[in-house]
């Protein structure tokens, strides 16, 4: 058991290190190409940081553990949203939602749409499989592809969304786009390897403790596979790219739901979300509620704070722990 925990924390350290490198090089790509830090945070970073979720979810599908797969995705989404409170505390200077760009509402709304589609599938209201894939997951794929294109076009129309509070080149970091992409790819590779190993450790720890697949997937596995998002988000805050950090949170959730579609393609017994426990709706509905709170806060621009954290992001943190408690009370199955 001790060796498993050592493996878990060693892999976590590797993921945190690689995640910081991932963010720095993504910021360089944004600066060199003019694509924009918010689009990079919403699309490019999640493609890499969501690799552990993809690997863990597909592995759960291959061993016929649909609840572990769904728990990993929805648990990661809710954990990622809790990072908004961490960003708020780490960045200081007033409530987070009063300082971020309104453009994040687009990504947040898209992520809400995909989580709603997943919730409809888990409720089994429609039950319209297309082959062995659910119609809802097909719609999730459509929303993701069209939404990614829409995000890029939105940022090109609103260049202020790309503005970082600090120019990375002024810090003396001058690297070509090609080299930055190479370093980005190497860091992503490290995350994949560490993500696989930390998933194995989490799974074995879960088996030895006797916890249910839903609870293990939603809490332990979700937190471990969300470490890249944690590392890259905090690194973006340190670099002064607050909008990139927030975009990474909503972008990761948007990407995570697309992983559900990929997993559904490989789950041959039938539509994946039709086969999971209703208990996953606790995390799904809480993720929708929290996203709505952040959208409201971004529009309302409240200056209310409790210590170093805004009132709305404090609600985000409370929502995460409430959902975790409710899932634990349900028995974790």
Task: Please explain how this structure is put together.
Helix content is 75%, strand content 2%. It is mainly α. The protein has one domain (2-329): Up-down Bundle (A middle domain of Talin 1). The strands form 2 sheets. A two-stranded antiparallel ribbon has the order 1-2. A hairpin with a 2-residue loop joins strand 1 and strand 2 (133-134). Helix 11 packs antiparallel against helix 12. The radius of gyration is 19 Å and the shape is globular. Mean pLDDT is 81; it is low at 162-173.
Write the layout of secondary structure elements.
Blueprint: H1 2-33, H2 37-49, H3 51-62, H4 66-91, H5 104-123, E1 129-130, E2 133-134, H6 135-157, H7 177-209, H8 213-225, H9 227-239, H10 242-266, H11 280-300, E3 305-306, E4 309-310, H12 311-329
Antiparallel strand pairs: 1-2, 3-4
Helix pairs in contact: 1-2, 1-7, 1-9, 2-6, 2-9, 2-10, 3-4, 3-7, 3-10, 4-8, 4-9, 4-10, 4-11, 4-12, 5-6, 5-10, 5-11, 6-10, 7-8, 9-10, 11-12
Brief overview:
With 333 residues, this protein is mainly alpha-helical.
Largest sheet: 2 strands, antiparallel
CATH architecture: Up-down Bundle
Q: Which percent range fits the helix content?
A: over 70%
Adjacency order of strands in the biggest sheet: 1-2
What string, H for helix and E for strand, traces the elements in order? HHHHHEEHHHHHHEEH
Distance between the termini: 23 Å
Strand content: under 5%
Number of strands: 4
CATH class: Mainly Alpha
Q: DSSP helix count?
A: 12
CATH topology: A middle domain of Talin 1
Average pLDDT rating = 81
Which residues form runs of ≥5 with pLDDT under 50?
162-173
Shape: globular
């Amino acid at each position: 058991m001790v060796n498993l925990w050592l493996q878990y924390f060693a892999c976590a350290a590797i993921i945190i290190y690689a995640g910081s490198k991932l963010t720095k090089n993504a910021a360089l790509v944004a600066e060199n190409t003019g694509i924009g830090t918010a689009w990079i945070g919403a699309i490019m970073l999640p493609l890499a940081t969501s690799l552990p979720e993809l690997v863990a979810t597909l592995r759960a599908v291959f061993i016929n553990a649909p609840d572990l797969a769904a728990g990993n995705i929805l648990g990661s989404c809710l954990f990622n949203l809790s990072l908004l409170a961490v960003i708020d505390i780490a960045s200081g200077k007033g409530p987070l939602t009063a300082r971020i760009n309104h453009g994040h509402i687009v990504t947040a709304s898209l992520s809400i749409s995909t989580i709603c589609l997943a919730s409809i599938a888990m409720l089994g209201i429609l039950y319209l499989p297309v082959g062995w894939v659910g119609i809802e997951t097909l719609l999730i794929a459509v929303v993701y592809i069209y939404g990614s294109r829409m995000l890029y076009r939105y940022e090109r129309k609103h260049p202020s969304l790309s503005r970082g509070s600090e120019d990375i080149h002024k810090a003396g970091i001058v690297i070509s786009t090609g080299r930055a992409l190479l370093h980005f790819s190497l860091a992503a590779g490290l995350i994949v390897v560490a993500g696989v190993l930390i998933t194995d450790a989490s799974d074995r720890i879960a088996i030895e403790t006797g916890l249910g697949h839903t609870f293990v997937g939603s809490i332990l596995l979700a937190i471990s596979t969300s470490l890249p998002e944690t590392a890259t988000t905090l690194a973006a805050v340190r670099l002064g790219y607050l909008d990139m950090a927030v975009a990474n949170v909503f972008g990761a959730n948007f990407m995570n739901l697309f992983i559900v579609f990929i997993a559904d393609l490989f789950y041959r017994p039938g539509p994946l979300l039709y086969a999971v426990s209703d208990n996953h709706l606790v995390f799904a509905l809480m993720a929708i509620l929290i996203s709505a709170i952040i959208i409201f806060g971004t529009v309302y621009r409240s200056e209310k704070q409790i210590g170093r954290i805004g009132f709305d992001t404090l609600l985000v943190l409370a929502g995460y722990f409430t959902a975790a408690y409710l899932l634990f009370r349900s028995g974790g199955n």
